[in-house]
Specification:
120 residues, alpha/beta, 4-stranded parallel β-sheet
């Protein structure tokens, strides 16, 4: 019997102290890594293209709403077509830290949902 582990939501970065160890230990398993901001999203795309067992979700967490540029949305649009990007992730509404930007959060959330369902 072959047992495989699938981590369906992890945050891993090349700058983590144990990055190579995690990659080695998971080489016969599958990881779905999550992006949450422009920097992490770029690294997710880089890692899914480099490792056969890594898939990813990319997205913009609502905490990032005040820092998002149109180029960040365009990055999502361009890279959602990658066969190893399996969804938009780390998105939603989060009023815990800041509830003064509810409208901006809703607009960002809708833009990201539209990427998946409308292709825009």
């Amino acid at each position: 019997m072959i047992i495989m582990f699938i981590d369906t939501h992890c945050h891993i970065s090349k700058k983590d102290n144990n990055f190579n160890e995690v990659i080695e230990q998971m080489k016969n398993n599958i990881m779905i890594i999550s992006g949450c901001d422009p920097i992490a999203n770029k690294e997710v795309v880089e890692l899914v293209n480099k490792y056969s067992n890594i898939y990813g979700v990319i997205g913009l967490h609502p905490d990032e709403v005040d820092n998002i540029k149109e180029e960040d949305i365009n990055f999502l649009k361009e890279n959602i077509k990658n066969k190893k990007i399996v969804g938009i992730g780390e998105i939603g509404l989060d009023y815990y830290h800041n509830n003064e930007n509810k409208l901006k959060q809703k607009e960002l959330f809708i833009k990201q949902i539209d990427i998946v369902f409308m292709g825009t």
